[in-house]
Amino acid sequence: MTADFEQLIYNGEMLKNSWKNQMKHFEKFASNGTVDKGVIDFITWILTTNNSEKLFAGSSMWNLLISKPKNKKLNYQQTLKIQFDNRTSLYEMEYSDWDSIDKEDDYEKAIIWKTKCIGIELPIKFLEFIKWNKNWR
After folding, report:
1. How far apart are CA 98 and CA 93, in angstroms?
2. Which of 25, 49, 87, 90 has the fewest CB atoms within 10 Å around its CB?
3. Is 43 strand, coil or helix?
4. pLDDT the model gives residue 102
5. What does each C-alpha distance from 132 to 32, 94, 104, 112, 128 come to in angstroms?
6. How many domains does the chain have?
7. Which residues pair with 113 in a beta bridge?
């Protein structure tokens, strides 16, 4: 079953609003100490770039999920996940391409790019990812 928001045609303003909504979401969790504030700084930075009008921001649990719409509709097949690891105090960025595998059991093979960094490095690592992933430029 597909949710209503997955059927929408997304324009730049709607995509930018997805980032603003995630900002509120993560600020709420940061205020009670559930998430690290580095992700809020990253979202703030994204909102100053034109990427906020090209990419969709979502979340699952305490992870930021970024996808690029395909034909102006949401596309979760290729997603960049940013999560904070409390054990190491590092952010983990993982890009998954579910179209690259044939079976769900091969989910680990769907992760085709990943890196770790501290919060202040998130924009730099994101730009490295964009440089690597020509489809997201």
Report:
1. 16
2. 87
3. helix
4. 64
5. 35, 13, 25, 11, 6
6. 1
7. 95
pLDDT at 17 over 70: yes
User: For 73-83, how does the pLDDT look when each residue is reduced to its tens digit (9 = 90+)?
Assistant: 988 889 999 99
Alpha helices in the chain (DSSP H): 4-7, 12-31, 38-47, 122-132
- Inter-residue contact 66 to 57 (CB < 8 Å): yes
Q: Which helix (H) or strand (E) holds 26?
A: helix 12-31
User: What is the total residue count of the chain?
Assistant: 137
CA distances from 52 to 57, 103, 136 (A): 8, 32, 12
Q: Per-residue pLDDT averaged across 108-117, rounded?
A: 86
Average pLDDT, the chain: 89
Distance CA 38, CA 44 (A): 10
Token pair for residue 125?
């690592």
Residues of the chain with pLDDT > 70, as a percent, come to 88
